[in-house]
């Protein structure tokens, strides 16, 4: 029986193992997140303690992600992941012991959160790199899209299970179950067939360092544009946990119950966005910028919606567009960069995500408090809309194309290749890829050339 194209990554046995383990691991992680929050609140009675715990968990990503990327590009993925997943499981078991014995107060919990952040910073790039080896480049976009659906489903399951288990079995049971979920991940990695993997080339010693990765990313202008766009939209357009709460408590007058309903709507939109992304044969730049435009313009409209129902209706496409945008950025960044740099590119993405959350959450909260939630949403949406148009123009220039005047108003759909007089065949061969084609001094990555001629047109494919 033929696998539907939307599920084509599941044709790989190794990916089926990976997806199943990932679903359980995400569910376990979200059980632990809610369990830690509840445990800290029960000990301290302070919401500030939760924020400090999140800070400790996020800080290592900003400091150590590039070191993790360098390790991922230098070392074999499977042994590295088996080690880090075992460490995650051990830390979860330690949390279970802390919760069951009640020893030490909050500082042991903070210590585990910090150590967990360190392990996550070191193994995050390796997880992304290994995921690409599981399916290969042809099915990577579909695997990334299905991964977003799996993550959304695992999050819903984990949060729901935590709500049921905390009053029945306590937080210690949540941490123990999460420890077991890492055992499932280890078993899945061990069960994969090595002959069906698609190994990526590892970096040589002189190209494996942090400095080499920074030079590569700094010299890849189109990638810098994507990362910059992801930061702006992540900071001002993606912290809906803040703005949804402010709208529910303020202008919408919906309270905690309304906030819960809107959170479910957002999760449903995220699943829909993941399914749409999975149905696409290619996640091209027009799809990426269209998703950015949907989320940005939708945010402006959400700020003027009069009630919970209308706000929820606008929230659905925003959530879907956010997932499509994330998946498209990750796909383009991974397929368009050198394979031996993949870990450090993924590290840069994770650092941008962590930085946007660290900046955007407090900033949006301050704007909601000072200007009101509606003004904050509208203002932030206008900024991200401008950033989307500017990103489209900058991307076209980075790739050596120009925006036609007639198409400029149609951004981000107006990116078309610029026609150029062909150079003599001998000159093109001597100059290498991109010569005589209007390409920048750094040729556009070969991994993207096969499909980006259509990706830069208004239609795409």
From TrEMBL:
SUPFAM superfamilies: MFS general substrate transporter (SSF103473). Residues 422-461 are annotated as: Disordered. The chain crosses the membrane at residues 21-41, 47-68, 172-192, 213-236, 256-276, 283-301, 307-325, 345-364, 376-396. Keywords: Cell membrane, Membrane, Transmembrane, Transmembrane helix, Transport. It comes from the Bacteria. It is a multi-pass membrane protein. Gene3D superfamilies: MFS general substrate transporter like domains. It is found in: Cell membrane. Residues 422-432 have a biased composition (Low complexity). Its main location: membrane. This is MFS transporter. It comes from Planomonospora alba. The lineage of its organism: Bacteria, Bacillati, Actinomycetota, Actinomycetes, Streptosporangiales.
């Amino acid at each position: 029986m033929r696998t539907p194209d939307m599920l084509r990554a599941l044709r790989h046995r190794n990916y089926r193992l990976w997806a199943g383990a990932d679903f359980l691991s995400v569910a376990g992680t979200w059980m632990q997140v809610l369990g830690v929050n509840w445990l800290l609140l029960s000990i301290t009675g302070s919401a500030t303690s939760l924020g400090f715990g999140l800070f400790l968990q996020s800080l290592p990503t900003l400091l150590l992600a590039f070191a993790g990327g360098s390790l991922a590009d230098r070392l074999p993925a499977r042994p590295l992941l088996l080690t880090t997943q075992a460490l995650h499981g051990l830390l979860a078991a330690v949390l279970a012991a802390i919760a069951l014995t009640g020893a030490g107060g909050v500082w042991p919990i903070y210590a585990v959160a910090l150590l967990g952040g360190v392990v996550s910073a070191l193994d995050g790039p390796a997880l992304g790199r290994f995921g690409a080896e599981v399916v290969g480049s042809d099915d990577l976009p579909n695997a990334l899209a299905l991964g977003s659906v799996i993550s959304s489903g695992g999050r819903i399951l984990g949060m729901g299970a935590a709500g049921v288990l905390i009053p029945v079995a306590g937080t210690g049971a949540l941490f123990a179950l999460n420890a077991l979920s890492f055992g499932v991940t280890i078993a899945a990695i061990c069960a994969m067939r090595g002959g069906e993997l698609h190994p990526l080339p590892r970096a040589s010693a002189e190209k494996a360092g942090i400095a080499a990765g920074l030079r590569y990313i700094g010299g890849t202008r189109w990638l810098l544009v994507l990362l910059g766009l992801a930061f702006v939209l992540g900071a001002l357009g993606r912290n809906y946990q803040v703005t949804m709460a402010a709208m529910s408590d303020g202008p919408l007058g919906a309270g905690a119950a309304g906030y819960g309903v809107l959170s479910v709507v957002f999760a449903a939109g995220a699943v829909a966005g993941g399914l749409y992304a999975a149905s696409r044969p290619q996640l091209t730049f027009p799809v990426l910028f269209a998703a950015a435009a949907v989320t940005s313009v939708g945010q402006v409209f959400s700020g003027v919606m009069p009630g919970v129902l209308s706000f929820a209706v606008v929230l659905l496409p925003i959530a879907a567009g956010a997932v499509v945008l994330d998946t498209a950025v990750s796909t383009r960044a991974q397929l368009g960069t050198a394979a031996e740099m993949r870990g450090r590119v993924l590290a840069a993405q994770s650092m941008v995500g962590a930085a946007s959350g660290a900046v955007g959450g407090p900033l949006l909260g301050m704007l909601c408090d000072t200007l009101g939630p509606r003004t904050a949403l509208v203002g932030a949406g206008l900024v991200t809309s401008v950033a989307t148009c500017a990103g489209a123009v900058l991307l076209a220039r980075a790739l050596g194309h120009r925006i036609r005047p007639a198409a400029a108003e149609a951004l981000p759909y107006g990116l078309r290749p610029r026609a150029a007089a062909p150079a003599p065949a001998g000159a093109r061969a001597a100059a290498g890829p991109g010569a005589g084609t209007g390409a920048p001094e750094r040729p556009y990555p070969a991994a993207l050339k096969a499909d980006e001629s259509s990706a830069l047109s208004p239609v795409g494919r």
